[in-house]
Amino acid sequence: MNYLDAVILGIVEGLTEFLPVSSTGHLTIVEKILGLNPSHKDVTGFTAVIQMGAIVAVIVYFWGDIWRIASAWCKGLVKPEYRGTFDHRMGWYVIVGSIPIGIVGLAFKDVIKNDLRSLWVVAVALIVWSAVMLYAEQRGRQSRTEEQLGLKDAIMVGLVQCVALVPGVSRSGATISMGLLRGLDRVAATRLSFFLSIPALLAAGLFEMKDALGGSISVGQTLVGTVVSFIVAYAAIAWLLKFVAHHSIGAFVPYRVLLGLVLVGLLATSVMSAT
Known about the structure:
Radius of gyration: 18 Å
Helix content: over 70%
Number of domains: 1
Number of helices: 12
C-alpha cells in the first residue's frame, strides 16, 4: 500500500460508511482494484482503523446529543428524577442495542474477516438487501418520531445490525430499514442508526488496532486514511440527514443493484476474482 492507496480508501470509507450502500463491500472492491488482498490481516486491520475516522466524525457531529444523553444516563444511575427521561432511556437503548453485534462479531470474527470477504457475497448482498430497503419504505408507517423510541425498537435495530456484518448489506441500510419497519420516520431511524454505529465501529477499530499498527502498512499511511475518512464522513453525515428528511432510501437502490450486477458480470467472466 502507498499513500495514494490510503487516501483513496479513506475517501471510500468516509463516503460509504453511513450511506446505505455498504462500506465493507466498496472497500473490498476497491482493495481488489488496487491490487491489495482484502482478507490479509494488515489490510483488514487498516480498514477497521480508518473506520475510526468515520466514527470520530459521528461523535463530533452529534457531540451535543451524545453529551446530553451520556450525562442523563449517568445521573439516572443515582438520581431517580432522571430515570424515564428520553435522554436517559436513549442511553440504555444504545447500550442494549449494541450487545447483539458485539456477541456475533466476536463469535464469528474469523468467518467475517475471511469467508465473507468474497465479491460474490458482496454482489448478492447488494442486490438482495436492496429489495429489503424498498420493502421497508413501502411498508413502514413512518409515524413515530425519535422521542417515541422504545426498548424493543433498539433491540430489533441492534439485531439487524448483525446482518450488516455481511459485506454488501450495509449497516446503515440494514438499521434504517428496520427502523422504518418499526414505524419510525426516516430521520429518527437514521439518527438511531448513527448512535448505534458508535460502539460497533469503535470496538471494531480498537480490536483490529494491533494488526494495523504492527503490520506492513505504516502508521503514516494509516493516519492519512483515517483523517481523510473523518473529513469525508462528516460531510456525508450532514448530507444524509438532510436527504432522508425529504427522500426515500430507495433512491440508493438503482446504484446498489447496478453495482451488484456489474460485479456478477465481472466475476462470471473471470475479469475479476472473487477473493
